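Here's what a typical entry looks like (Methyltransferase domain-containing protein):
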Amino acid sequence: MKKSQVSQLLRKLNLLYVADKMRFYVERFKHRDKNAAFKKAHPNVVLPPDYLIYESFLMDYDNYYNGGLKSAKWLVDIFKKYTTLEDKKVLDWGCGPGRIIRHLPTLMGQNSSFYGTDYNSKTIDWDTKNLKGFHFNNNTLEASLPYEENTFDIIYGISIFTHLSEKAHYEWYAELYRVLKPGGVMFLTMQGDNYRKKLTEDELISYNKGKIIIRGNVKEGHRTYSAFHPKGFVKNLFSNAEILDHLEFSSDTEDWVPQDMWVLKKR
């Protein structure tokens, strides 16, 4: 039985969250020596609780910190292609435990201001107490942010739409568009064509017709809730914006499937 079939079965039996929690303990045990070595080598690096790290990506301290730095550099390099970096207001939508945003002041300069928002109250509590010089907000799954219209020059969301319902896609995109300045740029990742190989036959038929694929039966917003995005659906979702680019990436390993990035400009 394929991994995707096992996942689907666990989802139908309402056991996927339990299985994912067990996977967390396995991953923490597997990385215990590596993580201990990282803490010894970097005693001044403030780290979130283990489960917050796991929820954000991998149960790996080096990947959280240095991998987060690498991702932040990659993201800033993409920003540079479409906007300047001076004196910007930047929003990390779905910031998690600060994996990327904590590195941005060093990479973009202190003249910009950085905001992070996330629906997980525990991760926002940790961010607020441990990452200084940022503006953090605890949102809910409801598409509502405490910012005025036309606030941000740059908004990015890395693997956030990938964990939302179809309805939430439209509601959250409208809210992000509202708080983006005219001429502002938005960077959003989706599980696009690279993920076709993970779909079931029935899902693939719908995907090829341009329909978003939702795997729910777990809490919306959690890492086990998944959405897959055909190009037609995404273009329709972003129809009121100027699509500056659609970046598709390849991978040399089966363990990591890269998401697409859509670059949008508010008209």
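The beta strands are 89-93, 113-118, 135-138, 152-157, 180-190, 213-215, 226-228, 242-247, 260-265.

More examples are in the samples folder.
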